[in-house]
Write a structure and sequence with these properties.
Chain lengths: 407, 200
Amino acid sequence: MNTSSRPRSAHDVQRLRESTEWLIRLSNGAPDGTLDDEELAAWIRWYETDCGNARAFEEMQTLWDRLGLLGRASVNAAAPFEREPAPRPDAPAERNGLRGVLEKFLPSLAGASGRRFAWGSLLAAGALGVCALVALVMMRTPLTLPPDGTLGTGLAENQEAVLPDGSTVALGAHSSLALEYEPAARHLKLTQGQAYFNVAKDKTRPFAVDTGELRILAVGTAFDVRKNDGRVAVTVTEGIVDIITDPPPLGSAGAAPSSRATGRSAPIRVAAGYQLIWDKGASDGRKQILQLSQVDTAGMTAWREGRLEYVNEPLSVVIADVNRYSSRQLLVDGNDLGSLNFTGTILVDSIEDWLAAIQLSFPVNVREGQDGALLIRRHASDEAPAASAIPQPSALRGTPLQRAERS
Amino acid sequence: MAKTDTQTAGAVDPVAHGHSYFDTQARSRDVASLFQQHNQLLLRFLRARLGSEHEAKEVAQEAYVRLLQLDRTGAVSFLRAYLFKVAMNLAIDRLRERTKQPLRAEPELFEELEGSAGPERAAIADEELDLLDIALNELPTRCRHALVLHRYHDRTQREIAAELGTSERTVRSYLVQAMLYCRLRLDGLSAAEADAMVRQ
């Protein structure tokens, strides 16, 4: 944000224009300048969907604030527009503009030390504003990964990153993603956890995400992959992906679906709005399951906002997911939750509420185990839940489980 | 299986921990997470609304306090909408106050910052303010008029339209042009270049 020349493309200028339009809509002056919920929501969408939008907005807002600094003290002194316009591009040092007016009309500011003090302060405030903005932009800009990097997240930590090709990934908690980019292919391995990809279009370089069990091929599209032990769910939010089951190792035959040649099954095409679930099947002899169903994709990707949403998901899988966000590890005691399915929402910052809730809706109870772990155990359905380490019904007011029917 | 409606609000029985303690904790967590995820957005919004970063922070703080006192829990998305709603109402109150009491400078803020910026930074900012000053004066009269009324006099676009005898739409376009022009001039474009880009 200095005064050196910085070329802007027509596109950039358009973005600045859009930002300014938003800024002016949001700042519609006096108290009766109303703004309805929809408009606000539209602004938030616009601001959040594109990092470039956010930056442009911030830039214009800084200018807006700067204008405020420039004119603030003159507000009650004079209406600056009543002056003769005095364009003097060649004489920047002369105080002809607002500041000139300001000093003329506000003698208190123009006093010997007073003037210096006030201006020094104003300038300092401006400069700090610039620094704060730079810091903010840097924090907001996700890291760009090297082409052969590994991105990992810790417990309860979601992260976003820009991949070397411009695609973006949101990585869920306790997840691990390895990049193996080649000139002709973009290979990624999700070895654990969950990731949402927004793929930059490049027909010459297929984008392939491998979980071991499945390979998901995309050209320009957005999809979510969740990998649990023995179960993988792929949710497509935009475009189309092809999914290969039981894929050959990455790199050997490239990402292209050469499956027929190797005798494997044909790729499964999954369109936006659908979810494909691969399940290895239980040890009781059930076979591998592939299930395609229509889903609420917003719900399936709500984990990025701290909500885990499930429809008819095995409780054991849900617990494995929750473990990626929970400071206390949940252990299934007796390994017998197989037939229990969960539908509902879990807020990752109120996992205790959820634990309290499942004891009421499922034949399970939760107890404190070793090392702060929580043991989840199934009991006979007609048996009353045992005393528990987890807050009992009093804690349940307004938990996500009840939210649905209350609203 | 997986029924989610086995509990109703009426069946909930206040035992053991009692409502208030737990709810307060849950609420604090919700508000903390809202703060983490949306504070920047909220501040951007309030700055646009109030035209002052300082006041934006004050209002945001107040909005969080209101949220902590809210007597019900809900999904994060609900809370976010509520947070912005509360913040918007508080901002409106502020603006009403402002029309009664003329805007005061913010000496405490400046005092705080005084001395914390080196001479180099001050020089850059000085140059930038000079340039901004020039750019403002290069604007077509009506454009500048609209911007000054809006930025320094908290006039709504409707009021400005009435004063200039034009439509609100035109006022908005004046404002956008004026801002864009200033931005491009600060980028280092000449008056003619900036003017051409704004007109594109």
